[in-house]
UniProtKB/TrEMBL annotation:
Name of protein: DUF6534 domain-containing protein
Keywords of this entry: Membrane, Transmembrane, Transmembrane helix
Pfam family, one: DUF6534
InterPro entries reported for this sequence: DUF6534
Domain DUF6534: 174-263
Leader sequence segment: none
Transmembrane feature ranges: 17-38, 50-71, 91-114, 126-146, 166-189, 210-231, 237-258
Key word Membrane present: yes
Length: 447
């Protein structure tokens, strides 16, 4: 009689049961996204594959734990009503404990991927590191809190005894997700200002920013609702129902972010078809450092380049009247390359040289003019903060503001060589003065 009076199915069972149903729904979505990822992105870096596999495995364990927890809550409660003399040593089932504990690392590893993107887009360490510390604090405190459910004997007593710690965990999670989402969206918007205002390129940046905000809002709004429910409704466990399916949202967010790359390129045809892969890159050794392209890149070339891009420390772009001129690359193509690479094409580059060996003949435009225009509009694709030596020859007057891009993208530059093709006016001197003042580590400058 007392058990029946104390039992309220709406408050005690309803939220968790609905949360379990929603978890099953999101698991179905994750299953479809997992198939898409395994089909389209087999060439991803092994670390990304390990991360995805780890999150999927933990989400599967979370689903099994949730199922067992709901079974124990419904059937176990019914058995307690029928046999009121039966007692249980723990207020939470094994499945509920497992599901609660696994939710924390699922959120952590998902956020770890977005922190990686945050670092790549921002090219900074301070703000991403702060978000990383918040994520680490959430992981440690979350594991500490939910591990206490193993020995809890009363759900309401567990909540009251750990109220402040639970509030801290939920608040840190909300702040971390908000900062990461806002940071990535801001730096995407900021980098988009350097993209040519062509319809397709602008649409690509806007679309990527929108997807980032949408993915971040899914987790951030869920975090906010859980915090509000926990603080304002101490008499029920509505917040646990929402918390039940929160890890599934994180897992789907990770896979959606990875699979969204397909949508960026689905309407674009490959630049070249039926070509051999770039075999010489696979035999990269210290004795063989020079590689030359004699044809357009294929998809196989791109995958190999991504694999070995971190090994490239020196890039020399040389043009001459005897060689084939360096053609301009379509801005839409460079926009997609910048998004796909996540930042610089060669992230560990130390020395970059763009030169015209023969120089222009008469009034002829320099052979490197088209390539330099691409660098002006996509500086963060070609320039990386690791560059220490930079040489730019025969820069046209309408490309002189590349100096500003250099000062922003390469703050630790030590050696700069710069030449102007035509006569330089006062505007060039102002740009030069402003740029050199922004490069505190500059040791030598040749004009």
């Amino acid at each position: 009689m007392n058990a029946a009076a104390a039992f309220d199915p709406v408050i005690d069972v309803g939220p968790s049961l609905i949360g379990a149903f929603i978890t099953f729904f999101f698991f179905g979505c994750m299953f479809v996204q997992t198939y898409m990822y395994s089909y389209y992105w087999r060439s991803d870096h092994w670390m990304i594959k390990v991360l995805v596999t780890l999150v999927i495995a933990m989400e599967l364990g979370h689903l099994v734990g949730t199922t067992q927890g709901v079974w124990a809550m419904t059937i176990g409660t019914l058995e307690a009503l029928i046999h009121p003399t039966a007692t249980s040593s723990s207020a939470f089932s094994v499945g509920s404990n497992v599901a609660a504990i696994l939710g924390v690392p699922i959120a952590f590893f998902t956020r770890l991927f977005f922190l990686y993107r945050f670092r790549r887009f921002s090219r900074a360490w301070t703000f991403p590191s702060l978000c990383g510390l918040l994520s680490l604090a959430h992981l440690v405190l979350g594991l500490l809190v939910w591990s206490r459910t193993v020995g809890a004997t009363n759900p309401q007593g567990f909540r009251e005894q750990n109220a402040m710690l639970i509030e801290a965990v939920l608040a840190i999670e909300l702040v971390a997700d908000t900062f990461v989402t806002g940071g990535i969206a801001y730096y995407l918007w900021d980098s988009g200002r350097s993209v040519l205002k062509t319809s397709k390129a602008s649409k690509t940046v806007r679309q990527l920013t929108l997807w980032t905000v949408e993915a971040g809002l899914a987790t951030t709004i869920t975090d906010l609702i859980i915090v509000i429910a926990f603080v304002t409704m101490p008499a029920n466990f509505l917040w646990t129902g929402i918390y039940t399916f929160q890890p599934s949202i994180y897992a789907n967010t990770l896979l959606a972010a990875l699979n969204s790359r397909k949508r960026l390129s689905r309407d674009r045809t490959p630049a070249h078809i039926n070509t051999d892969s770039l075999r010489n890159l696979t035999t990269f050794t210290p004795e063989k450092r020079t590689f030359s392209f004699r044809r357009m890149m294929s998809r196989a070339d791109w995958r190999i380049l991504e694999k070995y891009a971190y090994r490239v420390h020196t890039l020399s772009v040389e043009a001459s009247s005897h060689a084939q001129p360096i053609a301009s690359v379509d801005p839409d193509v460079l926009s997609v390359v910048q998004v796909h690479s996540g930042g610089a094409l060669l992230p560990n580059l130390r020395k970059l040289s763009v030169s015209d060996n023969d120089g222009p003949d008469g009034d002829e435009v320099p052979h490197t003019a088209a390539f330099l225009r691409n660098m002006v509009h996509f500086p963060y694709l070609f320039f990386t903060s690791s560059i220490r030596s930079l040489e730019l020859d025969d820069v046209l007057e309408n490309s002189l503001h590349i100096l500003g891009a250099v000062s922003r993208a390469i703050p630790l530059l030590e050696h700069l060589s710069f030449s102007v093709w035509d006569q330089a006016g006062d505007e060039f001197l102002e740009l030069l003065e402003d740029a050199t003042c922004r490069i505190p580590k500059l040791v030598s400058f040749h004009l």
